[in-house]
Amino acid sequence: MFKPAASLSAASLSALALLLAAPAHAAPAQPALKAEAELPLDPRFSGERIAADVGFLADDLLEGRDTGSRGHEIAMRFVAARFAALGLVPMGDMGADGKRGWLQRITFQKTEYADAPAGLAFSGTDGQHRFDHGKEVIVSVNPNVATVDLTAPLVFVGYGIDNARVGINDYAGLDVKGKVVVLLRGYPQGMSSEVGAHLSSSKARMAAAHGAVGVITLGTNASLKVRPWSRTVQFASRPGFDWIGPDGKARDEAPGIVLNAQVSDEAAAALLAGAPRTLAQIRAEADKAGARPRGFALKTSVHGFVSSRTSRVSSANVVAMLPGGDPLLAKQTVVLSGHLDHIGISPARPGDAPDKDRINNGAMDNAVGSATTMEVARVMAADKTAPRRSVLFVVTTGEEKGLLGADYYARFPTVAKASIVGNVDLDMPILLYPFTDLIAYGAEHSTLGAQVAAAVAPMNVALSPDPEPAETIFVRSDHYMFVKQGVPAVFLGTGYANGGGAASRAFLDKIYHQPGDDMNQAWNWRAGARFAEANWRITRGMADADAPPRWLKDDFFGETFAPAAEKAAK
Q1: What's the CA gap between 149 and 202, in Å, rounded?
Q2: pTM of the full predicted structure?
Q3: Do 392 and 415 form a contact (C-beta atoms < 8 A)?
Q4: Predicted confidence band at 36 (pLDDT cuts at 50, 70, 90)?
Q5: Residue 319 near residue 104, CB atoms below 8 Å
């Protein structure tokens, strides 16, 4: 049985109590939080139906829907059955009979640490210093090199960024061919967080382009505040996941980079022995707005070593289409996506009670997004008039492993790649309060921003800017894989107004990626129905518009990933 949430969450009621108790001379009170009755809902959308679907997908039976697990396979077939019942067109892999099924099957490689020593040894003016993996250093496994055993000179390259669009080349004047580069985590203070996050994710590829064979990352003062070494090292031996490409090899964004590692302050001191600048001096400069510590050759070399073993895992995206009805526009496709996988069952820890709940059910993350996608598909399929453009519903796998299912689909779509004109992704809307605003991460990069705002305005829902840009959400969810293929895309989440900020922070602090993300939370299913309505309006608006979404002129992402595409004026 599902217990519906009250009209206002406990956090909202507390906030109202504080407002009522405020003295007369206090600062002007904020507007009272809106109750459910003030927020309109199209009766075609059902919170009860969404609750039922989330309840099934987040049931203990599915054991947290880990990629490749039996529970995730059950969930995939459940979604496919829902799409079939709606009369949608299957758009998965082509079968031997020449017909498409509902699943786009993907082979993943799981790369684990072998039972062998791993670490880094630095040799320089003050002798050799060896550090073990999982303690002072973290040495990543290489998906395509089973045994890494590399010795090479070291070169410090500042942030390690080389990008003409932002006018930075940290490699200028440095010879790194055949060497291991040492670089700072992050990007210069003052740079756009989204641009900086993209550049950070591309550093290994930049290093490889200059001939480097390895990358070692140093934390900055800013990065260590967000993620101290003690927290980073907790995940040191987590297995790697990558999809297997048509060439039979695991995906490798920078195939020339053999060694990839991170180091603690203790190891960094040994690495920088005899250098013209200390770690403290480098970090102090990096703290200044716009500063970029210059690179220099180091007087040390590194010996990096790690061994791994691999296995293969099969999983799939679920893909369905509602064909467009306009003879000219039906060949274009808009995509509504959300990931179905979660993180499975946590391993038992010493001292755990035998009956301790270790199943990470993933109700909010992201059974809700999958259930919302199904609800939008249901209403759209029942619309009397077909959308002008075709609508593709893609329920992805492997998001928790690194956005892998979306990356695979965006690179190898089951429709013509050029036909995909826009994407909206749904991942973990916080359905614990009556939301009055939405956040469309990435809205400022394309005309999708204006389209989303116009679509939800009739619901008395506002479009808010990213409340926490330092978290770089725009580059951390499935939609970004479509962006990298040149497709304008946004990631839609519930906003921070009307109690949303407190609800979101409480969920992230106490529930996210924990067994508590289940059906026992104080759910607001009416908010779930309204979130589905908002996504129906947005998707339908994209599908019916005279013009497809376009990147804005001179936008970094549009110019980087779709330089030849027609741009819209800002």
Answers
A1: 24
A2: 0.91
A3: yes
A4: low
A5: yes
Q: What is the pLDDT of residues 161-184, one digit of tens each?
A: 999 999 999 999 999 999 999 999
Q: Is 456 helix (H, G, I), strand (E, B) or coil?
A: helix
Q: What is the CATH number of domain 41-90+323-347+357-561?
A: 3.40.630.10
> What is the domain partition of the chain in residue ranges?
41-90+323-347+357-561, 111-310
Rounded CA gap, 19 and 25, in Å?
13
**What is the Cα–Cα distance from 467 to 186, expressed in whole angstroms?**
20
Closest CA to 432 of 344, 522, 509: 522
Contact (CB, 8 A) for 120 and 302: yes
At 115, list the tokens.
């039972």
C-alpha–C-alpha distance, residues 175 and 213, integer Å = 12
8 A C-beta contact, residue 65 and residue 341: yes
- Are the C-beta atoms of 37 and 277 separated by less than 8 Å? no
CA pair distance 411, 414, nearest whole angstrom: 10
In this structure, the number of other CB atoms found within 10 A of the CB of residue 6 comes to: 12
Domains 41-90+323-347+357-561 and 111-310 share a fold: no
Q: What DSSP designation does 238 have?
A: P
Segment 219-232, tens digit of pLDDT: 999 999 989 999 99
Within the chain, what is the greatest distance between any pair of CA atoms?
77
Mind listing the pLDDT tens digit for each residue in 426-465? 999 999 999 999 999 999 999 999 999 999 999 999 999 9
Residue count of the chain? 570
- The CATH code of the domain at 111-310 is 3.50.30.30
| Residue 178 near residue 151 (C-beta atoms within 8 A) | no
- To which H or E segment does residue 422 belong? strand 420-426
